[in-house]
Amino acid sequence: MKEKIGSIFKEQFGSAAQWIVRSPGRVNIIGEHTDYNKGFVLPAAIDKNAWLALSLRDDDRIHLYAADLKDSYGGSLSDLKPIEPMNWPNYILGVIAQFQKRNVVIKGLNAVLLSEVPIGAGLSSSAAIECATAYAINLMNNAGIERIELVKMAQKAEHEYAGVMCGIMDQFASMMGKADHAIRLDCDSLAYDYVPLKLDGVKIVLLNTNVKHSLASSEYNTRRQECERAVALIQEKYKHVSSLRDATVAMLDECVKAKDAVAYKRGRFIVEEIARLHEACKNLQNGDINALGKNMFATHDGLSKAYEVSCPELDWLVDAVRNNPAVLGSRMMGGGFGGCTINLVKEEAVEDLIKELSPAYEAAMNLKLTSYVAEIAAGTEETGEGMGR
Ligand code: GLA
Q1: Would you please indicate which residues are annotated as catalytic (active-site) residues?
Q2: What fold does the segment set 202-374 form as a domain?
Q3: Which of 182, 217, 222, 327 has the fewest CB atoms within 10 Å, measured from its CB?
């Protein structure tokens, strides 16, 4: 990929790139929709990356080229705003805008984007681009901003330039990933530790529904508001509760149940999901992958029935493996309404499982099934010096 993007850059801009940066997509083992509720998540970076090749310019122009899409963008640093309708340059422009907001003086740039992270698969292809951009701009302009701050800037870019009020999980995982480890992240304090993903003989298999229903981002923002409604009702009595992280089922029963049935359902799922995540971490520490898998199935059922962010295609895929002894756990992953399921599958059964599921899924849903075996990899990095420096 490094060679490929380097030569595309040369073709586009006539000289070698000065920097090449990569940033990965992510999986999330468990802890879904908990990040913006200030709870915990357990993501990990994967071996699929968004790549950026870049050079500085002497003027304040921004020239971008998305090699996969064969699409270009040209603009100026002095007039930065999201393009409409929403399109890929916004992930890059949104991050550049964050540097300007922090009064970092930055120079114009040429950049080529090339990504291996499938779009709309729930693997955070947008966070990968945002993190690659944040890392690169920081490096190129000697801005000296720490990784955690870059994570926050990448998240803000998604809020302000893509219109999705996402939590911090995706950008954190992309930037901070470590090979063979998941990240247990406290989304309130941003304290984190690395949990070894010891899955002896078990593979993380991603099954892509190949759908992304159009209500994904609007429903996402709605869930966020529904959770805030639950918190507001609890707060009338329990002043110290500022997020669902601090709530209990008893509080929800007492303050929310009778007044707002939807907020109650959502809130209850979040409180239970945070507890499930802690259990899952213990399962991993004890090497009990069976128990971890059971918790993943329980998460799916909650996301589907109580949080209502699944869809028929995701439910079909989880149901199809539920009673398969080679599959220890399965659930929808990420924001929902399409994308992938994450599955823990015994290594020797992976090939047969995919062979079996593909035609059945295609017959049932009239859609192709694609699959990836995810390896857990390191976060954002510069991939060796570019040729121009
Ligand atoms: C999307 C968001 C994340 C997180 C997940 C659900 O991936 O970008 O912040 O909320 O959905 O867990």
Answers
A1: 170
A2: Alpha-Beta Plaits (3.30.70)
A3: 222
